[in-house]
Amino acid sequence: MRRQMQExxxxxxxxxxSISRWVGSHTDLHEVWVGEPRAVGPEGWHIVGKSECSSxxxxxxxxxxxxxxxxxxxxxQTVPVDDHYCSDQLKPPTREPCHxxxxxxxxxxxxxxxxxxxxxxxxxxxxxxxxxxFGHRLADRECQELPHVMTExxxxxxxxxxxxxxxxxxxxxxGKGTKxxxxxxxxxxxxxxxxxxxxxxxxxxxxxxxxxxxxxxxxGPWGSxxxxxxxxxxxxxVKCVDALLSAVLDDRLCxxxxxxxxxxxxxxxxxxxxxxxxxxxxPAVPMGKTxxxxxxxxxxxxxxxGRGNQARYVSCRDAHDGxxxxxxCAHIPRPxxxxxxxxxxxEWQTGDWxxxxxxxGHGKTNRQVLCIKYHQPINENxxxxxxRPSAExxxxxxxxxxxxxxxxxxSEQPNHFxxxxxxxxxxxxxxxKWGVHPSIRGNQWRTGPWGSxSSSCAGGVQRRVVVCxxxxxxxxxxxxVAAKPPEAKHCDTGPCPQWNYGSWGECTQTCGGGxxxxxxxxxxxxxxxxxxQNCEILxxxxxxxxxxxxxxPDDVSWHRGPWNSxxxxxGKGLxxxxxxxVDQVQGKLEEKYCSHLRKPRTHKACRSGRCPSxxxxxxxxxxxxxxxxxxxxxxxCRLRGVGPVAEEMCDWSTRPHSQRQCxxxxxxxxxxxAGEWSDCLTSCKMKETHRQVQCIDAQNIQVNESxxxxxxxxxxxxxxxxxxxxxxxxxxxxxxxxGNCGFSYRQRITYCIEIRSTDRYKLHQLWPIDYRExxxxxxxxxxxCNLRSCLHMATWKVGKWSKxxxxxxVGVxxxxxxxxxxxxxxxxLCLKRLKPDAQKKxxxxxxxxxxxxxxxxxxxxxxxxGDYYLNIEGRIIKVYCADMHLEDPKEYISLxxxxxDNFSEVYGFRLQNPYECPFNGSRRLDCECTNDYLAAGHxxxxxxxxxxxxxxxxxxxxxxxxxxxxxxxxxxxxxxxYSAARCPQGRFSINLAGTGMKISSTAKWLAQGSYASxxxxxxxxxxxxxxxxxxxxxxxxxxxxxxxPIQVI
Length: 1049
Hints:
Elements: H1 2-25, E1 43-50, E2 57-72, E3 77-80, E4 95-101, E5 105-109, E6 122-125, E7 128-132, E8 137-138, E9 151-154, E10 161-164, E11 176-180, E12 183-187, E13 190-192, E14 206-210, E15 216-219, E16 231-235, E17 238-242, E18 247-249, E19 263-267, H2 287-290, E20 292-295, E21 306-311, E22 314-317, E23 338-343, E24 347-350, E25 362-366, E26 369-373, E27 376-378, E28 392-396, E29 435-438, E30 444-447, E31 460-463, E32 466-469, E33 488-491, E34 498-501, E35 514-517, E36 520-523, E37 544-547, E38 557-560, E39 572-576, E40 579-582, E41 588-589, E42 603-607, E43 613-616, E44 627-632, E45 635-639, E46 643-644, E47 659-664, E48 671-674, E49 688-690, E50 693-696, E51 702-703, E52 717-719, E53 726-733, H3 738-741, E54 748-756, E55 765-769, E56 794-798, E57 810-814, E58 817-821, E59 839-843, H4 853-860, E60 866-872, E61 875-882, E62 890-894, E63 903-906, E64 909-911, E65 929-931, E66 937-941, E67 943-947, E68 952-954, E69 961-966, E70 974-976, E71 986-991, E72 997-999, E73 1005-1009, E74 1013-1018, E75 1024-1030, E76 1034-1038, ...
């Protein structure tokens, strides 16, 4: 029993602590005891707390917190205990009715203001005020305990930004130029109008560039005057000089228009005048002594390289620089008119001297001499023979000492061997061709010249002939073997070129099998390129390989979220949505898993109603009539369709000026002057007469009329008082002559006659006039005309109606309508107002639109190729359907602009020096080139195939293409093997104008090959693209990943 009481007391203490904590956290209830114990005794029910009323206005309920309590002697206060101690008492209800005081408050908000930024994350705010449930405004402190949201984030999508291409190469080969790059506004790699990007942060698209100083004209000093007296001229040298190399160049490499003059006139002292006999005592100067030869500058050499001719004019001139007979210049040698000139095509290069052909005495050494151009040997005729280095020269080695071992001494030995008819010693000249090496018995080793190296690179062997000969040069068998010269030696002409390759590029697909590529070149260790045939072709590494061959997942897709509201509150803006790559259970994946699928667009243009704009009325009159003044006009903010609105709704920075200065010319006293009136009697048709009125200044000079007072201006026009002209209208009826003229319908023929009077006392004369000039309508009292078998009658002739211009829908029918005289000639006598219609509308069956040629083939059972109309992305486009007799017909677009604007080319010329870009990159037929590129070709296109599923051009379809020469080149492709110095000459052109299609802005071109460069120009509307591509050798093709996408305009 005691144990039970201890447990009950522990429970009570625990309950007491819990309630104490609760009461301590609700201090407003700490001293509130609602109700007394319901039973008399140590224990009882107590209400320790109440909830808020469930209704703020009217009848409601509140909850009561009821506990069993007893008085604790130990603590001296009432404490909670377990409910079973009060089980003998009725527990009071835990809920009671209540009544709200009906004073409700809440925050009332205005509409959100415009976002502080149209993109990139901004903030918008709104106004608020506290109101009660009756809508009456209260002090804000009445609602201060309620949640209060005044601002929120908005437009949290990225802003369009400027994007740039790589800088182009400097377009000049020397001097100063300007390089360019493309700058566009984009969002998520999609091109937008520039208006969506901040113009103040737009990157520059042009930048100056400077290369080495260009070749320029340099002049020498003026020569002496060609005349010793009177007029003559003097010459000077003018050369095109490369300042960097200090070398004289061909004149064509300098700008011809700026070439300084090489001749100028000069005046010496006056020549003695030859007077008539008896008039002077001065001696006469004979003509033969004053005449001189004159000659011009040499023309350029007739050969650009090698030997040629150059010419100049030579003439005999007298003292007054007039042309004289050549006999008067016979006292001076005549200058040459033609001279031989030589322009080297290459330069001489020499090898090392070979060893001396003799090991002792006199010998010869030689070396290789080659004519070299751009590191390649060429014919020696292309190098200057006058400066050719020698290929052979003499060499001297120590004198030869014959060996006499095992022979008698010189004192004992005769000069000749017994029975031999030759001296002991050999002649020095015998060593000129063969190297001589001492041996026994007078025999010697002789060597021939070294042969060429057995390998062109990486080490080889040179060989020569070594023979044993006696003193007479005859073959011998006894030479010292130990002294035999070597017959072979190693040679090394440098390392061999090896295959070198770059890193792999990106795979064209992320799954399903793509292609990756890399550059593979033949290269020396020093980096210099070599031709591919100089490397081992069997060891060439692959330049293309497959990648990502695993199958693409078929259970993924792009999920399109809802479009957000337009970013602009008025005018043009952008809408955005979220596009996610998801699996079959809508789980989010990385975008790479959907890269094989075409991603839907994430944004689109939108319009949120018209924006208010400033409207300016016309300028009012200047405040003065002369001198400086002020012009004003009314400017207001207007919303179209609404009218004037508050000026705060318009952008103040764009508000037009409402006032400007004006200037009337200097205030000068001017006045009106009127001329004589013209005569009214010249024609009865004249209704008014004129005279000239001018404003003149104080000097009687005509000035602008604004200088005279307009209120005092005299009349310049007044009515004439002549009697009106009289006319008679004569009308004929076709029924009078229907049988003769053959009219198919009634027609009235009307003539107008004017009654003129040259003198009021003379009879009136009748003058027929053009009916169009008749000022009166036909009179009801008409005179019958005698048409005399309609000799001059004409009528409208009509042809049959043509077929309707369309096969379905609304079209037009036409017919010929011509005015014909009865004799069959064309006439202009028919009345225009009676002309029958030449056109009328027609209607055939309702048109049914198709989306592919296969649909047309299946629905209408058509097997004929031709032009049809397809519904492509909501637009009706004219498409040529081909292979309609087969199961899968193909769609083609006919190129309206024709083959001249739609071609692809691989240029066939190759520079002899591929490391330059002559003529500033322009194409010239007189370049130092060879036309031998095997891949060259030029293809023109009249139609191109399109894939309506992927909306791409099939560039390799050549069904409607014609190869003009060489090999076929795919659409939108170009290349060359012209230069390694970024000097592309291959071209392609695309012109889709008039087709209803354009090249998508996402289209990109990929450079392939060695030293490849690409220059692409696009029209603003996307219908035209022009490209220049090439390298050494290189080309450009539409990017393998995107193809050549097109869009409907």
